[in-house]
Structure prediction request, 458 residues.
Amino acid sequence: MSYAAEIRSLPRTVRIASLFWMIVTIPLAVWLGPIWLFLLFAAVFAAWLIQRTVWAIAAIILLHYFLFQESETITLPEFAFAFFFNAFLLFWLFERWRHQQPVLKSRVQILLILFLASAIISIVPAILFRVSILKWLRELVPVWNLLLILPISHSIRDRRERQLLMLAFFLLAAAIGIRNLVQYIHATQSVRMLWQFISARQSANEPVLLAVFLFAASYFIFGTRKGVRLLSLVIAAIFGTGLILTFSRGYWFAALFGLLILFITLPLKRKLFALGFLMTFLLIFLLAFRIFFGAKFEKFYDAVSSRLLSIENVKMDISIRNRVEETRAVWKEIRKNPVIGYGLGKTYVFIPLIPRELPTWYVHNAYLYFWFKTGLIGLVLLLLFYGAAIQNVICNFRSSIGRPEAAFPAGALAVLCSFLVVSITSPQFIQKDSLLIMALCIGLNEAMVSGNLNNPDT
Prediction:
């Protein structure tokens, strides 16, 4: 199809909106300078990209890099991403309506919409308790990104498209992993004390490192080609190293729990193979760190051991004690209003052992967070949605046993289950990186369950 034919095939509303934008923008570009010219080209490119669903989803995955920077206000990249993401969703929904195609096709997707509806309805208690609407909106935006599940599950038709999305996520993860590793090596160049190795930790985007590590382990265990297994082993070693550099004990435990899930899914004969993977990974990890840190390797080893063993004495661990105090304060508020909650954006006050800004909106326990914000109804809907998604992954894995396709549902199961565990100490259901991973795992699994990706002809 020629370019002119592609333009004519667009919906009339899209052509009118694009023409209007060009009529307004071109004179402004001449008058105000190159920034408007950039916006013109960005808008034209976005309009072109939106109509190519799979490529648009890949672009949305890559653009998450700009969202993973912590901020207390809505930044320009966040605003631009929200505009592009919602424009894509609206266009996708319009196309489904125009072709009379269903939007919701499974129990998981229906429960997702019900959960998001409970989050939106939380504006009512938020107004009653005088919560800022902007704060309510800021906490709604991350969970809103779960809607990416819908276009992924409907639009991914073959393995190449699935591999494109996984490649986009891997590139995103590689950029984060390389950044964290370089920053940690730079921060530890002049350290001498044991505590300095821990204080220099790179704790950003641990869920991304965890997900890639578990998926690489899954593809190594369930893969059938030697090249895939070798590449998966190297990737697991690299991202496992990055995960260790976070010094986040919760994510270390989540990684072990994910590996345990993979181990359970294996037949007896392959369990020894999985143990071999673990030993090989540890060997490569130790070798890599010996190369990177040289003479400081022993100090780094002592730092990791010290961080891991510090959990033995809970009463002396200020991080754990602080979260206990946080939990008590949130639970006290929940008991006052357990059913409808206080609305997204609601803050609370407690006496922190670790200095922090108060009042605070953040709760480390994800389950208490949603109970506090959206009430018991919102929490139950979240658990029903997530439980149904895990059930679908298990069914997909069982139907794929004995084939290479089993690697994806096995990895997705390990990741989703590990998120359930780590959410007790770190709220995965409100973190942008975790929600992106959930959307990919659940959306791609839904596409496989629908039959497209398991068809031998594709």
About this structure: The chain has one domain: 52-449.
